[in-house]
Amino acid sequence: MAHEVDGKIFETDEEGFLLDPHDWNESLAQHIALGEKLDLDESRWAVVRYVREHFESHGQVPEARYILKELGKRFGKEKATRKFLYQLFPYGYGQQACKIAGMRKPRKLMLDV
Questions:
Q1: Which of 46, 78, 80, 94 has the maximum number of C-beta atoms within 10 A of its C-beta?
Q2: Sign of the CA dihedral 3, 5, 7, 10?
Q3: What span, in angstroms and rounded, lies between the C-alpha atoms of 31 and 55?
């Protein structure tokens, strides 16, 4: 599979996860989010950008607990819940947020637990 955005081809696995996370850009994120039927509002962008920042500095995808801490810092304690994270990404943080952030498919989708 592949995504074509702005005339460039981005190779993906059979589920639409990027094969090379370094190919990612925000236009591609918007394209993937559209395919997931999600609007990248401020809260979703916060999660996607945090995943990217964490990946760039640590070389791995952050677990959901780190995302919850970040949501709490940015939007208040009432948004630092798994319920809110699932409102943002109904099919799960690992399945949708990581895909939109250009990550490879997480080896364990325990990120959502």
A1: 94
A2: negative
A3: 20
Q: How far apart are CA 80 and CA 69, in angstroms?
A: 6
Residue found under tokens 């809110």: 84
CA atoms of 64 and 70, how far apart (whole Å): 10
- Supply angle C-alpha 61, 6, 96, rounded to 5: 30
Digit-by-digit pLDDT tens for the chain (113 residues) are 888 998 999 999 999 999 999 999 999 999 999 999 999 999 999 999 999 999 999 999 998 899 999 999 999 999 999 999 999 999 999 899 999 999 998 776 545 54
Q: Indicate the SS3 state at residue 5.
A: strand
Residue from 49, 18, 47 nearest 111 by CA: 47
In the numeric block, which tokens belong to residue 83?
């319920």
Q: CA-to-CA distance for 65 and 7, rounded, in angstroms? A: 37
Q: Which two tokens stand for residue 69?
A: 């801490």
